[in-house]
């Protein structure tokens, strides 16, 4: 019996020494920040980090707030002292002084996959969570092993997700304790999402409500380019397994996995309502071969009610070309889905096309007919929105009579046939020559 205990102790010592050697040669955390959102706090972002995701249709997204949520043009566009407008504020953080993301209905309902795709799970989607007690290879919420010389950790989330005061592209990296407490700041009703009834302990099984086995095991940045490299996800290098499981070292050959697709950018700044648009989506893991089967991505557009699924015209591992059909005005979300795994959601804006069909004059009234005019903002502007009539390049004095989506009437006593009428709306402008006969 004594000999068995000695052999058992030597075995444990050899395992620990092996782990120590393996961990000592790997670079320290934090994890590579190329995928998803930085491990940072909201106040750690600068404007360019916001625009990494919000690169498409930002002005039109805000313009849609004017008729729908009671904003006025001068909330952003300030009138200058001598007429005209001053340059609007472009820094997102001036108005968004707290995160707008986790106030959405989906976030409050803990349906995280709506925005984050298959990088996470929803607590109520019935994904697999082990029911057995934690074993030696079960990851810890912090770590199970630490190198006393290098302070390198293993066996849990802190092996990779740890604070680093060196900024990454301007954003300081924080640990999980800080980033998770910033999700619903100050809302004590949400503590039970992670903590037990005592309010202190955090169980890995609670973490798995949002970070299940499947979603964790399918995360890798650009798998085709980072296979075998450490730190780009959870499956690239054998130590990526060690970082979570510590007591278990995978073989040097990582098995093929169906990796979650990732979107880097979309090509179209703005889609026009009713018009077909050919769009290029760049990303990684958009196409994967696993067990001899080719898995390709479909493009899914979400309008909050239904999903539109589009088959790409062409696809590679890093690029999709897809034809987006004409859609109605509104704010949408776009993602790609491959083998049931969904990328993060990126915003997509469809704005109305401003188009004049005719401009005619009768008496002092000029009537402009067309589409995409939307509604008048309710504020009076001489140089922002409305109808301007120019005679030989000089603007004439006008006053608004009526305005709806397809017809605008203005009073302009000086206008005549041949003058140029221009309609300027929240979403663009169009011009036409005035036709018809003047009658007094």
Mean pLDDT: 82
N- to C-terminal separation?
Answer: 117 Å
Uncertain segments = 7-26, 376-383
Helix content: 10-25%
Shape: elongated
Please count the helical segments. 12
Number of domains: 3
| Rg over CA atoms | 29 Å
Given helix and strand content, the structural type is: alpha+beta
* Percentage beta strand: 25-35%
- Main β-sheet description: 6 strands, mixed
Number of strands: 24
List keywords for this structure.
six-stranded mixed β-sheet; alpha+beta; 440 residues; 18% helix; 3 domains; Immunoglobulin-like
Strands, helices and their partners?
Blueprint: H1 2-24, H2 47-53, H3 58-63, H4 65-69, H5 92-95, H6 105-108, H7 113-116, E1 145-146, E2 153-154, E3 164-168, E4 171-173, H8 176-181, H9 204-207, H10 213-216, H11 223-226, H12 238-245, E5 262-266, E6 271-272, E7 277-284, E8 287-290, E9 293-296, E10 298-302, E11 307-310, E12 314-315, E13 319-324, E14 330-338, E15 341-342, E16 346-351, E17 355-362, E18 365-371, E19 386-391, E20 394-395, E21 399-403, E22 407-411, E23 420-425, E24 428-433
Parallel strand pairs: 6-16
Antiparallel strand pairs: 1-2, 3-4, 5-7, 7-13, 8-9, 10-11, 10-14, 12-13, 14-15, 14-16, 17-18, 18-22, 19-20, 19-23, 21-22, 23-24
Commentary on this structure:
The protein has 440 residues and is of the alpha+beta class. The chain folds into three domains: 2-50 and 110-245, no CATH class; 262-351, Sandwich (Immunoglobulin-like); 355-433, Immunoglobulin-like. Helices cover 18% and strands 26% of the residues. It has twelve helices and 24 strands. Strands 6, 10, 11, 14, 15 and 16 form a six-stranded mixed beta sheet that branches. Strands 5-7-13-12 form a four-stranded antiparallel beta sheet, with no helix packed on it. Strand 17 (355-362) and strand 18 (365-371) form a beta hairpin. The longest helix has 23 residues, at 2-24. Residues 7-26 and 376-383 have low confidence and may be disordered.
